[in-house]
């Protein structure tokens, strides 16, 4: 449980960035995070990480807390994450124009494909797509956020499997009253949000919603466009209902259900995509101060994804359908955790969790005009059951803190299948893939020493990730380039370590971390040939286009440094981050050409500088400079995305205690930010300059 108190911006980072006085005997261990949330001083309770109280287990690793996570007026959660150097989303474009399957997220240079190597959670519930491992970021723009905790580094057994690069924890708050926003922006963009909530009986109820749409921009850069290119519109919305109520003196129940819909286009005909999703969860928490604490969680994710891929003629003057896909998927899971009372505290966490994913892809391809000639169906299921334990030597106060955690997982991949038929005719193939299973262990050990304003820390860790059903079974195309799936992929395994130092004095904070990781069996899209020709798993590939397959590389080695500095002056917080990552591929066999190459979509340098006010006075605002270095588009390093520097800024003015007007802009320099390059040299861009004007209200 993370307790947020309004009226300030001083962060007591969860067991990482700020020392705390030792707990008195009999006290409940509790971290306090101060956030300004534009509301009179009141206490807001936020459940996080699926735990009963925050763990000190992350004390030995690098932690960042993102404050003032605003909704509406064009603000998007994924772009807020870009303020932290080292957080990498597979494409530089956001959820208004990027293809949904390219929206994975990772940390510390562990790239290679679009599946997430960082574990994303919402109030402790895993959020990656059950089939693909990508993240539907537009689904979280409707949520009333209390903050985001970014824990870098793997091995956190209590978070669950899949946190190779770290955990990005999204935390929601329960609305108290009514608040919302409405804005109009460039290219006929509209953005509206609403939150309402309050007490109901012995508990609370809250409703959150958001709707946004726009005509979009033309993705292909000027000078390369043809008659087939047009603007790429988007329409997105979501709503959620949450309920919390007491179940005795020391217990409570939390239930939530939310749904979202996402419609977007890639700027040519036959490239529209659709995502519909529904999530639900129930959590029971028992939190006595003088006895063992426990929690139980159950959740379900339902996804229905449909997308089209187009073939654009040379000169970009005509377009034809190339592939139409529909991917229904389901994720279900459960988790139990116990915190025994140890020495009048709760430094021990033990528990177990289970996650199951089921999904398939249904594809029509081999078009003659607008009529598909063949159909492919492929999919399967996976299960992971694990047990974990985490121990710390006490609270993150003065002196030495030791932490150790570990987990053991039993994974299984069910019988997979891939069937191809001529539509209205005979079957072409009917492949069955035998089930597989195995055991994996992960863990972390760390040390932190704190004296006055200085803390020194070190940690070593091991993590793992199971291939997604998407990587195992779903082929895909990006323009003319085709990539085949690989049902024989092995789990990824990471060994890593880091050392760091934190310093804080008054409103000044400094943090520096050195890290090194080795990701064995790293899954990447490996180029195996070029068209024209027919290739296994994808069919015909056009002349000059590439044919790839997902493969396990020997390893990705990544080492680097992360630096963050923060200064508070009155109501203004200045924050700067910089990350340097030296990542190299270790490859042999069919992937030998990649040996020594930099992984695709990973830049050496990334940095940000932001100024934000807490809007306590009549005038508020923000300004954020973001820099991303050049990076390879492809695995062979033949296509390079240039570096880019962008500026976002906004200014707000209070008309009364309840109303504010605001103007804000994205990419105010109108910088060309290359998002992708095809094998034919066609460049797509991320969001150009976008301006918004609107109002917020809060009752």
From TrEMBL:
Main subcellular location: membrane
InterPro entries (UniProt xref): Beta-barrel_TonB, Beta-barrel_TonB_sf, Plug_dom, Plug_dom_sf, TonB-dep_rcpt-like
One Pfam family per UniProt: TonB_dep_Rec_b-barrel
Residues that span the membrane, as ranges: none
Signal sequence coordinates: 1-19
Alphabetically ordered keywords of this record: Cell outer membrane, Membrane, Receptor, Signal, TonB box, Transmembrane, Transmembrane beta strand, Transport
Domain TonB-dependent receptor-like beta-barrel: 242-668
Annotated TonB-dependent receptor plug domain residues: 69-167
Membrane topology: Multi-pass membrane protein
Subcellular location: Cell outer membrane
Similarity section: Belongs to the TonB-dependent receptor family.
Classification via PANTHER family: FERRIC VIBRIOBACTIN RECEPTOR VIUA, TONB-DEPENDENT OUTER MEMBRANE RECEPTOR
Name of the featured protein: TonB-dependent receptor
The species this protein was found in: Sphingopyxis jiangsuensis
């Amino acid at each position: 449980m993370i307790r947020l108190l309004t009226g300030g911006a001083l962060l007591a980072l969860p067991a990482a960035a700020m020392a705390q006085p030792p707990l008195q005997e009999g006290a409940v261990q509790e971290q306090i995070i101060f956030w300004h949330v534009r509301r009179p001083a009141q206490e807001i309770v936020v459940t996080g990480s699926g735990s009963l109280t925050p763990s000190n287990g992350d004390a030995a690793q690098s932690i960042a807390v993102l404050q003032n996570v605003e909704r509406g007026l064009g603000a998007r959660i994924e772009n807020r994450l870009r303020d932290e150097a080292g957080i990498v989303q597979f494409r530089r474009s956001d959820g208004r124009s990027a293809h949904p399957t390219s929206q994975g997220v990772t940390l510390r240079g562990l790239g290679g494909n679009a599946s997430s190597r960082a574990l994303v959670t919402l109030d402790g519930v895993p959020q990656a797509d059950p089939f693909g491992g990508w993240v539907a970021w537009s689904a979280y723009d409707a949520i009333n956020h209390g903050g985001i905790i970014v824990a870098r580094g793997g091995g956190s057994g209590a978070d669950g499997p899949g946190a190779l690069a770290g955990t990005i924890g999204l935390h929601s708050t329960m609305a108290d009253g009514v608040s919302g926003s409405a804005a109009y922006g460039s290219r006929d963009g509209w953005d509206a949000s609403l939150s309402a909530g309050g007490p109901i009986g012995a508990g609370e109820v809250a409703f959150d919603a958001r709707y946004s749409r726009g005509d979009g921009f033309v993705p292909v850069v000027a000078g390369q466009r043809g008659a087939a290119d047009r603007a790429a519109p988007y329409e997105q919305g979501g709503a959620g209902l949450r309920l919390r109520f007491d179940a005795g003196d020391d217990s409570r129940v939390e239930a939530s259900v939310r749904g979202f819909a996402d419609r977007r286009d890639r700027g040519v005909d036959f490239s529209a995509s659709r995502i519909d999703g529904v999530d639900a969860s129930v959590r029971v928490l028992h939190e006595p101060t003088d006895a063992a604490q426990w929690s139980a969680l159950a959740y379900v994710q339902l996804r229905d994804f449909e997308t089209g891929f187009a073939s654009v003629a040379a000169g970009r003057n005509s377009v034809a359908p190339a592939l139409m896909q529909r991917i229904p998927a389901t994720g279900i899971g459960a988790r139990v955790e116990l915190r025994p009372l140890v020495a009048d505290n709760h430094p021990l966490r033990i528990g177990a969790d289970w996650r199951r994913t089921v999904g398939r892809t249904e594809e029509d391809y081999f078009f003659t005009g607008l009529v598909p000639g063949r159909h492919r169906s492929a999919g399967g299921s996976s299960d992971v059951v694990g047990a974990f334990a985490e121990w710390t030597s006490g609270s993150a106060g003065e002196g030495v803190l030791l932490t150790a955690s570990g987990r053991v997982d039993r994974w299984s991949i069910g019988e997979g299948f891939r069937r191809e038929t001529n539509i209205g005719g005979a079957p072409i193939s009917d492949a069955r893939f035998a089930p597989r299973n195995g055991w994996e262990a992960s863990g972390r050990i760390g040390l932190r020493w704190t004296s006055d304003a200085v803390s020194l820390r070190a940690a070593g860790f091991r993590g793992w990730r199971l291939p997604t059903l998407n990587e195992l079974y779903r082929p895909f195309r990006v323009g003319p380039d085709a990539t085949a799936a690989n049902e024989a992929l092995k789990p990824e395994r990471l060994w890593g370590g880091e050392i760091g130092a934190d310093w804080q004095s008054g409103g000044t904070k400094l943090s520096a971390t050195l890290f090194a990781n080795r990701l064995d069996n790293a899954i990447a899209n490996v180029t195996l040939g070029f068209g024209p020709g027919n290739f296994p798993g994808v069919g015909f590939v056009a002349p000059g286009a590439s044919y790839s397959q997902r493969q396990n590389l020997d390893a990705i080695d990544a080492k680097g440094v992360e630096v963050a500095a923060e200064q508070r002056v009155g109501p203004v917080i200045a924050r700067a981050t910089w990350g340097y990552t030296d990542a190299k591929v270790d490859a042999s066999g069919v992937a030998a050409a990649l040996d020594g190459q930099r992984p695709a979509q990973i830049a050496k340098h990334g940095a940000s500088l932001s100024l934000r006010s807490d809007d306590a006075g009549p005038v508020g605002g923000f300004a954020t400079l973001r820099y991303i270095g050049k990076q390879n588009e492809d695995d062979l390093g033949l296509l390079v995305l240039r570096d880019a520097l962008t500026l976002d800024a906004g200014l707000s003015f209070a008309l009364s205690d309840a109303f504010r007007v605001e103007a804000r802009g994205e990419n105010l320099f109108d910088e060309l930010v290359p998002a992708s390059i095809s094998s034919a040299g066609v460049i797509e861009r991320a969001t150009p300059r976008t301006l918004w004007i609107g109002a917020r209200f809060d009752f």
